[in-house]
Amino acid sequence: KSANPQWREQFDFHYFSDRKDMLDIEVWRKDNKKHEELLGTCQVDITALPMKQTNRLELPLEKHPGSLLMLIAVAPCTGVSISDLCVCPLGDPIERQQISRRYCIKNSFRDIKDIGFLQVKVLKAVDLLAADFSGKSDPFCVLELGNDMLQTHTVYKNLNPEWNKVFTFPIKDIHDVLEVTVFDEDGDKPPDFLGKVAIPLLSV
After folding, report:
1. Does position 155 have pLDDT exceeding 90, yes or no?
2. What is the DSSP letter of 132?
3. In this structure, how many other beta carbons lie within 10 angstroms of the beta carbon of residue 165?
4. I need a surface site. Which of 32, 47, 140, 202 has the fewest CB within 10 A?
5. Taking a C-beta distance cutoff of 8 angstroms, is the pair 148, 142 a contact?
6. CATH code at 125?
7. Domain limits for position 28
């Protein structure tokens, strides 16, 4: 019930500098569980923003009244990676030894915010739902931890896709839940939901 909402939420997107990405933002209005209405969109060219500083942006919504006030910082990312199985970070004995030293008991209070990190190997899916008329799907996998999100590539025309990717997340809250969702890529349309699993970090 507000025309001037304040969210004050922070989201972390892992932006790789070799890509020329635009940040797409949509504002939606929700009447009830069933009815939603798009209130406007805007874009931010990430490559045009200065590095290592917080940029205060007031973005007018395209073709709709209103604007968004955002703080966007582009900074070097630590503790996050996507790699193939053969070169995963914990596969190197020297790196594993360094990590063991970094998180040993005597170093626990050196950096309170550095709780640790989570490494997830996404190998494959089996017997997925067929989302296309051809009896196949174009599946990809999305991993979410808190407000961090990483995803695999799409394997086309396959109900038993193999991704064989390794994802590394920094942990900010030990009570977070890792959510792994499989979607079917559907061209320009929103992806179709194929399944999901939720894993509390405290259960690992």
Report:
1. yes
2. S
3. 20
4. 32
5. no
6. 2.60.40.150
7. 22-74
Give the CA dihedral 23, 27, 30, 31, nearest 10 degrees: -160
60 and 99 part of one domain: no
Contact 154, 187 (CB under 8 A): no
Q: Which of 198, 126, 122, 109 is nearest to 166 (CA)?
A: 122
**Mean pLDDT on 60-85:** 84
Strand partners, 204: none
Q: Which residues pair with 116 in a beta bridge?
A: 171
Cα dihedral 129/132/134/136 (nearest 10)? -40
- Its pTM stands at 0.64
pLDDT in tens, 161-181: 999 999 988 888 889 999 999
Token pair listed for 96: 């594993």
Q: Which residues contact 89 (CB under 8 A, 6 or more apart)?
A: 81, 83, 95, 119, 166, 168
**What's the CA gap between 42 and 25, in Å, rounded?**
5
Going by the DSSP 8-state scheme, the letter that residue 35 receives in this structure is: -
In order of 45, 145, 165, the CA distances from 69 in angstroms are: 15, 25, 36
How many CB atoms are located within 10 Å of the residue 144 CB? 18
**Distance in angstroms (rounded) separating the CA atoms of residues 100 and 93:** 10
**36 close to 56: Cβ distance less than 8 angstroms:** no
Nearest 5°: CA angle at 117, between 112 and 120? Answer: 165
Pick 107 or 196 by higher pLDDT.
196
